[in-house]
Amino acid sequence: MLCVSVCPKGQLREDKGLNKRGIKPIKFLGKNCTGCALCAVICPDVAIEVYK
Ligand code: SF4
User: Mind giving me the DSSP string for the chain?
Assistant: First the structure.
């Protein structure tokens, strides 16, 4: 959930339920993403890749 809290544009939010790995997924809204990559930098699992 660190990425949700750090996004300056509110483009990430907690999704409903669990995925098939039993992990609560994050939903990317994607409308106003600036590509700042703060979400990727803060993720301890290196689970996010940002590209334009
Ligand atoms: S790259 Fe996009 S989704 Fe990630 S923190 Fe920046 S604005 Fe938010």
Answer: -HHHHH-TT--EEEPSS--TTS---EEE--SS-----HHHHH-TT-------
